[in-house]
Specification:
alpha+beta; SH3 type barrels; five-stranded antiparallel β-sheet
Length: 172
């Protein structure tokens, strides 16, 4: 299988979060979770001084750009390129160029390798969040989002729920 790389997508200014949301919705609808792993709008915390008051706010590190961790192929290129608000990939012509590890390091994006002690089919208990004290069986694991999907009973029927890795514990 091809390796996932980080790519930069140019967007209309001010549309970064909308593009991120649109791409995440397309990923879910077209079941591309295994090809488009993560979409990020790089942010940085800055202190603003307004009317004598210091206020910490998050600002976009690169206005007009979105980072996408994906496996580049014709389908993923087409999906991202034709998302509303996207003007194109960064790179010469129509050929996207992946970012190098050296370019990714200052952004704090390069993910450290994550070791998890559970697998699909394992019984887990939710230890934090809305579903606290709920038990379930892992249906799927999304390492890109660092979450698992379990089925919970909601209004008398089984409903899939996505839960973060740090909110669950394996039942031994």
């Amino acid at each position: 299988m091809a390796e996932a790389n980080w790519y930069v997508v140019h967007t209309y200014s001010g549309y970064e979060n909308k593009v991120k949301a649109n791409i995440e919705k397309i990923i879910e609808n077209r079941h591309l979770e295994d090809q488009i792993l993560e979409v990020r709008v790089p942010m940085q915390d800055v202190v603003e001084l307004k009317n004598g008051a210091r206020k910490q706010v998050s600002k976009k590190l690169f206005p007009g750009y979105v980072l996408i961790n994906m496996i580049m192929n014709d389908d993923t290129w087409y999906v991202v390129r034709n998302t509303r608000g996207v003007t194109g990939f960064v790179g010469p012509g129509s050929k996207p160029v992946p970012l190098t590890e050296t370019e990714m390091k200052p952004l704090g994006v390069q993910g450290e390798s994550l070791v998890i002690d559970f697998a699909e089919g394992d019984n887990i208990i939710v230890i934090d969040g809305v579903w606290r004290d709920t038990t379930g069986v892992i249906q799927s694991i999304n390492t890109g989002k660092q979450s698992v999907t379990i089925n919970v009973e909601l209004f008398g029927r089984e409903t899939p729920v996505e839960i973060s890795f740090n909110e669950i514990k394996k039942i031994t």
